[in-house]
Design a protein that fits this description.
The complex is a heterodimer of chains A (663) and B (155). With 663 residues, chain A is of the alpha+beta class. Helix content of chain A is 63%, strand content 11%. Classes of the chains: A alpha+beta (663), B alpha+beta (155). β1 of chain A pairs antiparallel with β1 of chain B. Chain A: It holds the Pfam family CcmF_C.
Chain lengths: 663, 155
């Protein structure tokens, strides 16, 4: 009975979402305040029913209700309770429900914090969010019902894919979705501005913390996914340019551009149309990401078997969202343009170049990801685009960004001051060259590693110099407002990330080896001794566990225990062992026995020495922190006085709305 | 030409130059890194002749997996309904690599066998990559494909 209640809750939620979409938009169009006021109650009601549906699905998982097909497909009696909760979003239907739940969380948060916005604008924003919700709820109800029954009820369920049974996987999808869905706020602001025909800087200021927070969540999700791939897939890599990774990376790139474009528009009023365009792209790519992963159009680790109805629905939905918003943009964007002019040598130009690079990089990744689909459609054969394509183009596109990054804070809005910049650049360059020369003695002449050190010092020194400058020049308490601190954290994260990527890529040693018990492998000053295999068991698996003793210059360092787990239904999963360190990771993964009949004979092992690999995720986490800290700035929440708004507002053709903004 | 227009012209020219470089590089990188997927019978028919590196996909033939005694070298045969291709690989095979399962290997031909540098088996053990299924269906249009070689996704 309960699952049917879940379905009913979804249907009611969809009706309320329709109300939330249509009534406020009509109200804002006709100037009817009663209709506009329906937005918040409808959103609240929708959120209650969506939460109810989600909880009912969680309940079904916790209580082993195998009469629900989705539960039977993705869990079984042996699965521990925490992975049963994670299994809710382990496959297509449940992850859609999670998406909708998160959309509702963001909508409610926006409904609460948008009291400062003019009534008509807030109504439009909530209406657009309602439209998105209608799209997703109808997709769920008509093509991917998570509450479908399975009769007769099986005694036990199938299993959650064992690669998903990992703590990293528990957090990865919700964080990623928080990011994807978070961009819907910036999107809704932009569409509302286009519908209303004007865009106030104050509204952009209100949209900024949402974009920053969404980008922070997305960063967190990508870092968790990368960490999971490293620890769980047994390949020891941290990024594979896999279609699904790309799907989350494209909105991240455009989101990074959007954060900077919004800063320009909010502070200077310039580049409004570009900001709107970026927010449309960020959200469209988030939608594409959600659907690419879950529809199975791309063959990948994460793809699930697909149903043709879903594919058609997705295409139509994407066409409406992308086509509709771009059409609206073409019709209305000229009305919202404006802002202060700026010189070629200015902070605006620097940010714009960075923006273009991010946008081009996203387009490059999009081309590489969709090329196999295009090739298939044009009958060019079954093509795949290899990682070297991305590996060649991405660093090229990001080089200007890295070079420009430390300059940003030193350039003034409107027109930059050359003298100030020159002093800073000389110091950064000296620091970078000096560190690169020192590093050259330690890295055996690997050019990539030397470039990595130089680039990281260039960025890091630039950030630190600015920190010192602010400390000296600004009065206490006004040195590092949250927005500034967030920027510094994120930019310093780039420096840390660069060290991690370039040093681990260039100096890693990886070996696939055949080892009999007692055999020793030496990598650098580390000796790995294989001490044989023993059997072990877990809550829902049994495993062969190897014992590998690592010594460093003759001293015992650690004993590592990589496993080869077997889950019910004979699914095999490699559980690698990692000895983590700040300057290096040691990584051992168990391959297969050389002779399947003799487990105590020789095994294939994969042994890695990975210097500075942890800095990759450290840098990612600093960027995430930057996004969150910047989102907390009080400036974004304080309501500006009417006079100040009037001064900073560019002339708007729509005087009625501008008048309301000040009311 | 007034200074504003001149500046705009320079900016436009720079953007066009940058776009041309970007497009050129992208095409170059794409061409170098596109890998085509072929099945053993397509390779036997000479379709992979023009490509130095390509991907070979099919089922691992039962009983064909042979390990070397002293290294990580392994030999197996990849088959589709009418073709067979011996593959040599040195390294650790993926968890889901088994007889009668679909694999996709990347590498090049060396004489009459295929030298793989990468072997992929899909994470879902009952899942046949769609592109591989299509390629195999295309290679044997009209022919019956052995049921055991075409596992369907089942709950």
């Amino acid at each position: 009975m309960t699952p049917e209640l879940g379905q009913l809750a979804l249907i009611l939620a969809m009706l309320l979402a329709m109300a939330q979409a249509v009534l406020p938009l009509v109200g804002a169009w006709r100037g009817n305040r009663a209709l506009m006021a329906t937005a918040r109650p409808a959103a609240a009601g929708q959120a209650v029913f969506v939460a109810l549906a989600f909880l009912i699905l969680v309940w079904a998982f916790l209580h082993f209700d195998f009469s629900v097909r989705y539960v039977a497909d993705n869990s079984n009696l042996e699965l521990p309770w925490y992975y049963r909760i994670a299994a809710v979003w382990g496959a297509h239907e449940g992850s859609l429900l999670l998406w909708i739940l998160i959309l509702n969380v963001w909508t409610i948060a926006l409904a609460i914090f948008s009291r400062n916005l003019p009534e008509a604008f807030a109504a439009r924003v909530l209406g657009v969010l309602g439209l998105i919700s209608v799209g997703f709820l109808s997709f769920t109800i008509f093509t991917s019902d998570p509450f479908g029954r399975l009769l007769p009820m099986p005694m036990n369920g199938a299993d959650l894919n064992p690669v998903l049974q990992d703590p990293g996987m528990t957090f990865h999808p919700p964080m990623l979705y928080m990011g994807y869905v978070g961009f819907s706020v910036a999107f809704a602001f932009s569409i509302a501005a286009l519908l209303g025909g004007s865009m106030e800087q104050a509204w952009v200021r209100q949209a900024r913390p949402w974009t920053n927070a969404a980008w922070g969540f997305l960063t967190c999700g990508i870092v968790a996914g990368s960490w999971w791939a490293y620890a769980e897939l047994g390949w020891g890599g941290w990024w594979f340019w896999d279609p699904v990774e790309n799907a989350s990376f494209m909105p991240w790139l455009v989101g990074a551009a959007l954060i900077h474009a919004q800063a320009i528009t909010e502070k200077r009023g310039s580049l409004r149309a570009w900001t709107i365009l970026l927010s449309i792209f960020a959200f469209s790519l988030s939608l594409l990401g959600t659907f690419l992963v879950r529809s199975g159009v791309l063959t990948s680790v994460h793809a699930f078997a697909s149903d043709p109805r879903r594919g058609v629905y997705i295409l139509v939905f994407l066409a409406i969202v992308v086509g509709g918003s771009l059409l609206l943009y073409a019709l209305r964007a000229p009305k919202v343009m404006g802002g202060k002019p700026f010189a070629v040598f200015s902070r605006e130009t620097a940010l714009l170049i960075g923006n273009l690079m991010f946008a081009v990089a996203a387009a490059m990744v999009l081309l590489g990801t969709l090329f196999p689909l295009i090739g298939d459609a044009l009958h060019l054969g079954k093509i795949s685009v290899g990682p070297p394509y991305f590996g060649l183009l991405f660093p090229l596109l990001m080089t200007p960004v890295v070079l420009l990054l430390p300059m940003g804070p030193y350039l003034r809005w409107g027109k930059g001051d050359g003298g100030l910049l020159k002093g800073m650049l000389i110091r950064c360059a000296i620091a970078a060259v000096a560190c690169a020369i020192v590093a050259a003695f330690f890295v055996d002449g690997s050019l990539k590693a030397i470039v990595g050190v130089a680039a990281a010092v260039w960025v890091g020194a630039g950030v630190l110099l600015y920190v010192i400058k602010r400390w000296r020049e600004m009065p206490h308490g006004r040195r590092y407002p949250a927005e500034m601190a967030g920027m510094l954290f994120a930019h310093f994260g780039v420096a840390v990330f660069l060290i991690g990527v370039l040093l681990s890529e260039s100096l890693s040693v990886s070996r696939d080896v055949r080892m009999a018990p007692g055999d020793v492998q030496t990598i650098g000053s580390y000796q790995f001794r294989f001490d044989g295999i023993k059997q072990t068991t877990g809550p829902n698996w049994h495993a062969e566990q190897a014992s590998v003793t690592v010594t460093h210059d003759g001293k015992l360092l650690s004993v590592m225990h990589p496993q080869k787990r077997t889950y019910p239904h004979d699914q095999v999963q490699t559980e690698s062992a990692v000895d983590a360190g700040i300057t290096r990771d040691l990584y051992v993964a168990l391959g297969e026995p050389m002779d399947a009949g003799n487990l105590h004979g020789a095994w294939a092992l994969r042994v890695y020495y990975k210097p500075f690999v942890r800095w990759i995720w450290g840098g990612g986490l600093l960027m995430m922190l930057g996004g969150f800290v910047a989102a907390c700035d009080r400036r974004f929440r304080v309501k500006r006085t009417a006079t100040e708004t009037a001064v900073t507002t560019a002339p708007s053709p729509n005087t009625r709305l501008a008048g309301e903004a000040q009311a | 030409m007034n200074p504003t227009r001149k500046r705009r012209l320079i900016i436009v020219l720079l953007v066009i130059a940058a776009a041309a470089v970007a497009v050129g590089l992208t095409v170059f990188a794409l061409q170098r890194n596109m890998n085509y997927l072929f099945t053993p019978s397509q390779v036997e028919a000479g379709k992979a002749h023009a490509y130095s590196t390509f991907r070979l996909g099919g089922m691992v033939k039962a009983g064909s997996i042979k390990r070397s005694d002293d290294s990580l070298k392994v030999q197996f045969t990849v088959v589709d309904a009418s073709g067979a291709m011996p593959v040599v690989y040195t390294g650790i095979l993926p968890d889901l690599f088994r007889a009668n399962q679909s694999v996709i290997t990347t590498g090049h031909m060396d004489g009459n066998h295929f030298v793989a540098t990468q072997v992929l088996a899909k994470h879902d053990e009952t899942y046949m990559p769609k592109e591989l299924k299509d390629a195999m269906a295309q290679a044997h249009a009209g022919k019956h494909i052995d049921e055991s070689a075409m596992p369907e996704k089942t709950p």
